[in-house]
Amino acid sequence: MQKVKILTIIIIGSFVLMSISCSKKENQINNPPGGNNQITPFTADFDDGIFPPIEMGLEPSPNIYPQILDSGYVKLVSDTVRNGVSALKITVSPVFQTQSSSSYPVKNRIEVNYKHNNFEGTEVWYQWSFLIPTYFIELDPNLYPIPFNIIGQFHAVGDPSVGMSSGAGTNPPVALYLGRESASSPFGVKLNYGIMNDNVGPAGYFPVTKGEWIDFKMHIKWSQDNNIGFIEAWANDSLITGGKYYGKNMHNTQPHYWKAGFYRGKEPLLPYNNSIFIDEFRVGNTESEVSIQ
Length: 293
Fold this sequence. Notes:
By secondary structure, the chain is an all-beta fold. Helix content is about 5%, strand content about 40%.
């Protein structure tokens, strides 16, 4: 599998800045002719020393918050890596606020995203590695009784054919929630799966040890049919879903895109920064295409 190369850089003084297109819109992706249900394998190992690859974007856009890149809230590091020579460090801050509409609460977010042709009926394998540092600040359930930390999710896009102008207001059909269910619960990740109020539920759970890498792998068949769509997932090669967990996982026929980093809320906004390290993000048609050698 070939590494992704960025096409353009701009050199200003002694700093190297990326020429990027991070303000990607939720454009509809038309089904390819033939419908062979295959995706183009993709790897982002961040070893080229340049971020982001041309295929990836950032939310919110650096066009709105230039300090995301300028001040190192998203940067490549060489001292904490899963494989190779570099990994991506994302630090979320109260500075970065997003709000879907005036009726939605303000949240903190920095996420890297990747859009691909995972059309309905496609089976796709995903792998990404992440590390929660030892200095990660956990939420105080007494101060924040209904908060969340989403570190990975799939998100819908618009589909005019069914009257959806965008994916706003839809839940992520696959989402990884970091934290504790209660003050006495272990620190870990809950895998939520399902569409809106139809079949949403926890599909799996795995503990997280701060300072240690987790290799998370998913096998997903994308479908709007409860009897066809499924996910099976592993954390460090341990199956966490008990096999294939069935249920619809698409809001419409358009490909749902992957996001990873930090998306946290709800109000009141959290007053501190938190970081996550990401490495070896891979997408393929088979398990072997995403395996770390």
